[in-house]
Amino acid sequence: MPAPIAPEVLPHVDAVQAALEAAELTVYVGGAPTSAGWTAPDRYVVLYPEPGTAVRESLADERTDFETTMTVTCVGSDWERVLWVADRVRRAFNAPLAVAGRSCKRPEDRGGPPLQRDNDVNPPVFFLPVQYWIGSTPA
């Protein structure tokens, strides 16, 4: 009998990004661009994925279930835009993610620190990091 297929993080990151883009959000992964000439939109999200964990699904030690936490940082030119983005993110995650060959649970909001202002960039921006737990099992 072939070994069970271990879950992969990249399809889950792709599913999160697709859900956020379907909610009409601009999404960057790992940080906003810093190239010369880049102009930040007035609101966007930055996704910070973690590698996740292959979790044992049974006593047979088949590690085919998957869990991870992804931080979605909502960014905006003012505090109202940031909260608008946070609302869109919650709406985007109100249904299970779509990952081929996997049965996904709805992302679970784990909260985060309060709204903050970043004065180290020009012009200053507001940001709000929110952590979401992501989980899936083989379909």
Description:
The chain has 2 helices and 8 strands. Strands 1, 2, 3, 4, 5, 6, 7 and 8 form an 8-stranded mixed β-sheet that branches. By secondary structure, it is of the alpha+beta class. The chain has helices at 9-22, 79-92; strands spanning 27-29, 43-48, 53-55, 65-76, 102-104, 108-111, 116-118, 125-138. Strand 7 (116-118) and strand 8 form a beta hairpin. It has one domain (9-51, 72-138): STM4215-like (2-Layer Sandwich), CATH 3.30.2000.
Structure in a nutshell:
Helix content is 20%, strand content 35%. It has two helices and eight strands.
- What's the architecture in CATH terms? 2-Layer Sandwich
Q: Provide the β-strand percentage band.
A: 25-35%
Give the class-level CATH name.
Alpha Beta
Secondary structure: number of strands:
8
Per DSSP, the total helix count is 2
- Could you tell me the mean pLDDT? 92
Overall shape: it is elongated
Order of helices and strands: HEEEEHEEEE
Number of domains: 1
Low confidence ranges: none
Radius of gyration: 17 Å
Q: Roughly how much helix do the residues carry, as a percent range?
A: 10-25%
Q: In the CATH scheme, what's the topology name?
A: STM4215-like
- The biggest beta sheet, please? 8 strands, mixed
Query: Which structural class do you get from the secondary structure elements?
Result: alpha+beta
**Gap from first CA to last CA:** 18 Å
